[in-house]
Write a structure and sequence with these properties.
Elements: E1 2-5, H1 6-22, H2 26-38, H3 42-61, E2 71-79, E3 82-85, H4 88-102, E4 127-133, E5 138-145, H5 147-150, E6 154-158, H6 163-178, E7 186-194, H7 196-207, H8 218-231, E8 247-257, E9 262-269, E10 275-279
Length: 280
């Protein structure tokens, strides 16, 4: 059995959150660059150029890509052959606390969501999703989820008879109603199947999948293409200024579900798609 310490975990978590706060991944930057070439709207082109300049400044000067530095979410794949020496959640939260303090990142978490809404002052607790996998390692995928886009997300329990058309209508309608609020161009994560909460989890995972990647199932890959086409026909455009680039990509993940249900969740991510991955 391999032992992984709390300190190793907190160090990795801190480095990943600092990295994604300043550096947009290549897949996102490349997608924005491609959109700048294809966008026909002058206002849309100007907005895309400003986004790319913002990416450059944030990366070179170690400044947050966006003032909303997000709520910390961690997806952890824990090998069955490893032992965590200590408290895993405490280690993750220590890493988040360190990143948001040392990086001077805005701390946006309130302890009580409804009544007092007092800021925890360190951006914890972290949302942690654990998955046991073969092996003796630990893989972490982190995302700092801003709420301009998170607030525009939605879930709907469709009827199986609604079919593909119902899924497309719901996803496109959700993005259309969001308009400029999630800071387009957006990345749209779609979760289909499972139960209500699992569809939402799938959508979150889909939202941080690489832009330009395709679902391995050709039927769902074609659905991704059609959703992207329909969304980019909405005319919302970069920063809501109009144009053909409302979304950089649509990623779909699916899971088995009950014979009586068709859960569908949409998680929207802004162009500051902050995520990073690392392993121990």
């Amino acid at each position: 059995m391999r032992t992984i310490s709390e300190n190793q975990i907190s160090e990795l978590v801190a480095s990943l959150f600092l990295s994604c706060a300043y550096c947009v991944t290549d897949d996102v930057s490349n997608a924005v660059e491609a959109a700048l070439i294809s966008e026909e709207s002058p206002a849309g082109k100007a907005a895309l150029a400003q986004i790319l300049e913002n990416h450059k400044i944030a990366r070179e000067q170690h400044l947050p890509i966006c003032q909303d530095t997000g709520m910390a979410v961690v997806f952890a794949k824990v090998g069955c052959g490893c032992v965590i020496d200590g408290d895993f959640a405490a280690a993750v939260n220590a890493g988040v606390r360190r990143a948001y303090s040392e990086g001077y990142l805005r701390k946006s978490v309130v302890a009580d969501p409804l009544f007092e809404r007092r800021n925890t002052k360190d951006n914890t607790p972290t949302i942690i999703h654990l998955e046991l996998v073969p092996g003796d390692g630990l893989e972490l995928t982190v995302t700092a989820k801003g709420f301009g886009s998170e607030n525009m997300s939605a879930i709907k329990m469709l009827s199986p008879s609604d079919g593909v058309g119902g899924v497309i209508d719901f996803v496109v309608d959700t993005v259309g109603k969001a308009g400029p609020n999630p800071c387009p161009p957006v990345i749209v994560g779609v979760g289909i199947g499972g139960t209500m909460e699992y569809a939402a989890l799938l959508a979150k995972q889909a939202a941080i999948r690489n832009v330009g990647s395709r679902n391995e199932d050709e039927r769902y890959a074609k659905l991704e293409d059609e959703l992207l086409r329909r969304i980019n026909c909405l005319g919302i455009g970069p920063a809501g200024t109009g144009g053909r680039t409302t979304a950089l990509g649509v990623n779909v993940l699916f899971a088995p579900t009950h014979i009586a249900g068709l859960p569908v969740a949409v998680n929207i991510c802004c162009h500051a798609a902050r995520h990073a991955k690392g392993s121990i």
